[in-house]
Amino acid sequence: MSRIHVTTTINGDPVEYLCDPEETLLDVLRDRLGLTGSKEGCGTGDCGACSVTMNGRLVCSCLVLGAEAEGAQIATIEGMAKGETLHPLQRKFIEHAALQCGICTPGILVAAKSLLERNPDPTEEEARYWLAGNLCRCTGYDKIIRAVMDAAAEMREAS
Amino acid sequence: MVKVRVWGSLAAATEDRTEVEVDATTLRELLDALAARYPALRPQLDRGVSVAIDGKVYNDSWFQPIREDSEVVLLARLKGG
Amino acid sequence: MALDTKSETRQFTVVGTRPLRPDGIDKVTGRARFGADMTAPGMLIGLVLRSPHAHAKIKRIDTSAAEAIPGVHAVVTRADFPVIGDNDFIADILDNCMAGEKALYDGHAVAAIAASSGAIARKALKLIKVDYEVLPHVTDVDAAMKPGAPVLHEGRANETVPEGMSSNVVARYEFGHGDIGAGLAGADRVLERTYRTEATHQGYIEPHACLAQMGPDGQADLWCCTQGQYMVRDTCAAILGLKQGQLRVTASEIGGGFGGKTTVFLEPVALALARKSGRPVKMVMTRSEVLRATGPTASSSIDIKLGMTKDGRITAGFAELRYQGGAYPGSPVEFGAMSAFAPYDLDHVKTVGWDVVTNRPKQAAYRAPGAPMAAFAVESAIDELAKGFGLDPLEVRLKNAAREGTRASYGVTYPAIGLEATLRRAKDHPHWTAPLGSNQGRGVACGFWFNFGGNTCVSMNIAPDGTVNVIEGNPDIGGSRASMSMMAAEELGISYDQVRTVIADTASLGLNDVTDGSRVTFAVGLATIEAARDAKREMCKRAAMVWGIEEDAVEWKDGAAHPAGPNAGSHPPMTLAEIAAIASNTGGPIAGHYEVNAEGAGVSFATHMVDTEVDPETGAVKILRYTVFQDAGKAVHPAYVEGQFQGGAVQGIGWALNEEYIYGADGTLQNAGFLDYRIPVASDLPMIDTVILEIPNPGHPYGVRGVGETSIVPPLATIANAVSAASGVRMADLPMSPPKVLAAIKGA
Ligand code: FES
Ligand code: FES
After folding, report:
1. In CATH, what is the architecture of A88-158?
2. Residue A142: which of C33, C640, C687 has the nearest Cβ?
3. What is the rounded distance in angstroms from the CA atom of residue B58 to the CA atom of residue B55?
4. Are A97 and C21 in contact (CB under 8 A)?
């Protein structure tokens, strides 16, 4: 089976890799590129732990083929902080204790960032529905939603 | 003598009594005395028990002192999540 | 160890605040390394072949075709593991990790492969030929108890099981006191009901994963996500015949456990593959494997008989509980039987528990194992009787509540406990009197759980610049590093950011019991405080040397050694940093440590309150408002205490409304994925309000109680009681999924 050569951009960095035709973007990120911040909770698109954005669209990277990343702009959790400066969502998650084990956190942060890019002033209900594809078993979501709402408020003020 | 409460299903091993008396001043003496006096308790003692002494639960501490007036209750070995 | 220390009613400076957790940045940036995030040079990928049958004799396994594939480095079956003699506990764990003569459930491991890539391993797995003789199976607990039911094992029943029962019944437990007949005779009404709950899975988002390597000299290293690296070490050593000291286990960050990671599934297999191949082997489960082959909790069937007078006094309580714990003995029915009536002060109480095996995966502990189902039954029955008499359900619970001095149904007499306080707070809370709309109803219920202590070691190293490392041996599953750093800072009198807590591997610290039983904040916290006291004693000694006075003329306060007493003379205090800086000149590095089997943990109670709306057209139940009232003893980091309350409540909501193991007629699991095994999502829920009560635990120097588990006990009945109030139907069969609720409404 011949491998596919892919040229893409991940978190702003030009990246090239070879992957098998059936390999998912999540496998490529984790196993070929060492970007293990995206997590695999299910591999079937049901948990959101693998959330990344592709050309600005929120996707489950376990449902995208590595080959589909050709020419795309991929953003993962590893690109969310700028140098030493955490994204307001990252900061608010720590402040609000919005993570217990933290396995869902990368996916939820990527998804929440994508929400706030589209809708800087979501209602609680909108935030809950947007994040409904991201499972968290530890927190009961209370502190996650509070952190997202608080980060949104701070980002609105700053802009 | 220390009074020891055993749970219902163990009464079959203790002459149908749910409260028995043994001579003991420590947890280890208590478990040894129970095993000696009621050999039919042995399988359960081998599987493991916890012992509540005055409301606090002990699992292993052989030399935990027991007073004559202590409330001593045998419990199934506790495990959690 | 005797824990007779009286907890201090003291003013805390660090404990009780909400500092940022030390591993926060790693976890929000993707840097934290979980079980599947580790690699090793030359690593192989290991995969498991699993039984497609619920019950089958394994007649022959032919691995030759698989072994012939280039890139396959090792194949193991049960034949590659030693025979375990007379230790049923270990033998069952091994049999669960790799089937022996029979496959006992759908998903049971029968062989494993290590290959140079996942793709090759997947291809080779298909070439392993297993010759099965399919046997009749049973997955339901009541069916498994019937004479003539398909039998999993012969001879596993212990001496408590009466003659003549199915061999699937392996243990019987009985607790209680008084005379049930007499108690029921004094009741104005006796309610008899049967309740059923389905098995649910812990549902941690991180699948099991590990990376193993082993040399021919028997030295091995294992990296894995677990609730207890020492448990993994000791279990794997026993299964594989290794020396405990030769196997070093490092716990990765752990992506949830809730009890499900208190045993092993992949780890012995990965070690066996690594031994055979001579290469590091990484294994990661798929979600379907997690659901099919790791521990869900037990399913249950419970008969209740409850007597009540018309003014709400419970005259007698009887429960017969039947739990199936999968293919091996060990369902948590004894804890169900012990905890069922534990919140109440009853003169006549009796519970009987039956442990039953079925063709399902071996159950693993799940947050307060065994208690939620029992509480569902008892709390539903109390509610039904109270409502029948037109009584306030909180008043009825207050009237019967266990208090200090109550003899619990499981035998002990309670010391100071917080149940009554949670009930009173619930009654005074605005939630209790808030208005409700149509099709809406409110429910309450109580819950009880034990807390554990256990083996614990903590070391504390003082660096030359006066910063401090706490070294502990329990994986941080929900912020415990923060709590330990806080308790260390409190005791040393320094600031929180001067302390960093790290989790040791098994070679670096003595035995630590598994992170379970809500034990970590209690027991590891206690050891951290004592290790700090040990370090303080040493620092006082060093100051005494410098000052040329007696050691006992020095006392520690506010982060510094002070001369104290009549003969101390006057010396300016020496801070921790000043003493640390001259440690080399005063005898060498300064460290504190403490090793203990922490015994004497307390018990914990909670009251939950929920408002639900039941859609009469669809049967869907919506959670509108939820409040948790629980005693934390002393909340070290209140935000993480709230998090435990909220997380447990929501797991309970899932158990009550959606989650269930569904088996087909062929005994295979029908919903082995997160799409069909549906755990609560953000849009299902409101905020979860919490009220933390602090009734100090006399067994802990700061009064801390475990808080992790109790919160999953009350929700099942709380919600069933609210559904009854909202819709008039009493759901005795979980989950209360829309079709069931709708059928009940239509049938009513
Ligand atoms: S791993 Fe992609 S959605 Fe779960
Ligand atoms: S914090 Fe553990 S799954 Fe969300």
Report:
1. Orthogonal Bundle (1.10)
2. C687
3. 10
4. yes
Report if residue B81 sits inside a domain: no
Q: Using an 8 Å CB-CB cutoff, list chain A residues near C647.
A: 100, 137-140
CATH of span A4-79? 3.10.20.30
Which of A62, A103, A136, A144 would best serve as a mutation to test chain C binding (most C beta carbons within 10 A)?
Answer: A103
A137 lines ligand 2 (CB under 6 A): yes
The pLDDT value given to residue B81: 59
Those of residues 16-75 in B touching chain C at CB distance below 8 A are 18, 40, 43-44, 47, 52, 54-61, 64-65, 71, 73-75
Amino acid C629: pLDDT? 98
Burial class of residue C247, CB neighbours in 10 A (0-12, 13-18, 19+): buried
At residue A75, does pLDDT exceed 50? yes
Average pLDDT score over residue span C209-229: 96
CATH number, position B72: 3.10.20.30
What chain B residue is nearest to C177 in terms of C-alpha separation? B8
For residue C707, give its domain range: 299-451+602-747
User: Does the interface ipTM go beyond 0.90?
Assistant: yes
Q: How many A-C residue pairs are in contact by the CB < 8 A criterion?
A: 184
Is 80 exceeded by the pLDDT of residue C4? no
Write down the pLDDT at residue A1.
59
Q: What is the pLDDT of residues C321-337, one digit of tens each?
A: 999 999 999 999 999 99
Q: How far apart are CA C601 and CA C519, in angstroms?
A: 8
Is the domain of C733 the same as that of C622?
yes
- Backbone dihedral angles phi then psi of residue C8, each to the nearest 5 degrees: -85, 140
Residue with the smallest CA separation from ligand 1 atom 3 is A45
Q: Is any ligand 2 atom within 6 A of the Cβ of residue A36? A: no
For residue C8, what pLDDT is reported?
47
**Cα C447 from Cα C377, distance rounded (Å):** 12
Is C159 among the domain residues?
no
User: How much is the pLDDT for C3?
Assistant: 35
Cα separation, C30 vs C218, in Å, equals 34
Q: What is the CATH number of the domain that holds C388?
A: 3.30.365.10
What is the domain count for chain B? 1
CB proximity list for C428: less than 8 A, separation 6 or greater:
none
Same domain, C567 and C509: yes
Same domain for C648 and C572: no
Is C254 an interface residue toward A (CB < 8 Å)? yes
